[in-house]
From TrEMBL:
Residues 1-20 form the signal peptide. Residues 24-53 are annotated as: Disordered. Keywords: Lipoprotein, Signal. This is Basic membrane lipoprotein. PANTHER family: ABC TRANSPORTER SUBSTRATE-BINDING PROTEIN (PTHR43208). GO terms for cellular component: plasma membrane. It comes from Desulfovibrio ferrophilus. Pfam families: Bmp.
Length: 384
């Protein structure tokens, strides 16, 4: 199954990465929240323009994990709350929806109720959403982390690897041993790309840094993800990073008295003595932009991949233990990324075996990034 997905990713040019999950089907409306954030610019050419949504727009969101996960779904729900605060808009959500048949049922139910737009926020929702989209041409369908589109269905994600690189710089600066641990979800391009960016960031400040990877094959399993982090600590890693939705790895680092790097949101509350920073999502500007344009009939369907320049990805505040000189170095690189003066996968970049993957002075293109199935030098682990 995974090989089939990866092959499809390599064929698709303008595509977007992956994500997964567990289930409840109760639609939950929410009270009005804070005002909508400023919207970013569009990132891709149009497929088809939408019709104006008008007043009384109903927007639905579907999450793969509970919004209380403190991670992926929680970050998306913060964006939903921004949409909820917009005039003439009402939102609802269904959390912890398994991928597959359950997802199709939830999407179909929203479409039948006449929702203006439906946002599905996990990779495994892609095919179910595409199936429903073909039946409801007047509904706007939005799929996060996939690559398939239709005249009324867009794909969107964010360049999280940019923030991963910066987090790697922090970890490489703070590690005493140069041994970094990474509790990872599934060996798919999105996760592999993030591990590689993190490793390159660590090596930018410590050329001898290495990153050990343990796969959990989960997105949200706090106990299993915590155990994965412990296994990395047991072999001498003194900074733990994660591509997981739970704060389990952060808690493991805190208990062992070492440092950690979170993901999705600021997880410092779970590990105040360990948490250095975290690559985080800010979906508010993206969702506000999309819904605003739908209301005006200006939304253009296509594939979108905004990044740090658009405010979709960022770093959480540095922990108090991070020295000012480290913060200054990382912030300078962050500004260079935002200004387009630095690209994370700028060559030379070599794979684990030392074979060149990106030539000196060249920059990996989006097709290569989106289909990445290999580790850079310095990563210890397999892509299986």
């Amino acid at each position: 199954m995974r090989k089939t997905l990866l092959l499809a990713m390599m064929i698709a040019i303008m595509t977007v990465p992956f994500l997964t999950g567990c289930g409840s089907e109760e639609e939950k409306p929410a009270p009005k929240a804070k005002p909508a954030a400023e919207a970013p610019a569009e990132q891709a050419p149009a497929v088809q323009k939408s019709e104006p949504a008008g007043e009384g727009a109903q927007i639905g969101f579907i999450y793969v994990s509970p919004i209380g996960d403190a991670g992926w779904s929680y970050a998306h729900d913060m964006g939903r709350q921004t949409v909820e605060a917009m005039p003439g808009v009402t939102t609802s959500f269904v959390e912890a929806v398994p991928e597959g048949a359950d997802a199709e049922r939830v999407i179909l139910n929203m479409a039948r109720k006449g929702y203006t737009a439906i946002f599905a926020t996990s990779f495994g929702y892609m095919d179910p959403m595409l199936k429903v989209a073909k039946q409801f041409p007047n509904v706007q369908f939005m799929h996060c982390s996939g690559y398939k589109t239709a005249p009324n269905m867009s794909a969107y994600f964010g360049r999280m690897y940019e923030a991963r690189y910066l987090a790697g710089m922090v970890a490489g600066s703070m590690s005493k041993t140069g041994k970094l641990g990474y509790a990872a979800a599934f060996p798919i391009p999105e996760v592999i790309r993030g591990i590689n960016a993190y490793t390159l960031g660590a090596q930018a400040v410590n050329p001898k840094a290495e990153v050990r990877v343990v796969w959990t094959k989960t997105w949200y399993d706090p106990a299993k993800e915590k155990e994965a982090a412990k296994s990395l600590l047991d072999v001498g890693c003194d900074v733990i990073a994660q591509h997981q939705d739970s704060p389990g790895p952060q808690e493991a680092a805190e208990e062992r008295g070492v440092y950690s790097v979170g993901y999705n949101t600021d997880m410092s509350n779970f590990a105040p003595k360990a948490h250095l920073t975290a690559p985080i999502w800010n979906w508010s500007p993206w969702y506000a932009n999309a819904v605003t344009k739908m209301l005006a009939g200006e939304w253009k369907h296509g594939s979108y991949w905004p990044g740090m320049a658009e405010g979709i990805v960022d770093l959480s505040p540095f922990g108090a233990m991070v020295p000012q000189d480290v913060q200054d170095t990382v912030n300078a690189k962050k500004q260079a990324i935002k200004d387009g003066k630095y690209k994370v996968f700028t060559g030379p970049v070599f794979d684990q075996a030392g074979a060149p993957k990106v030539a000196a002075g060249k920059v990996a293109d989006d097709e290569s990034l989106l289909g990445m199935t290999w580790f850079v030098q310095g990563v210890i682990g397999t892509t299986e």
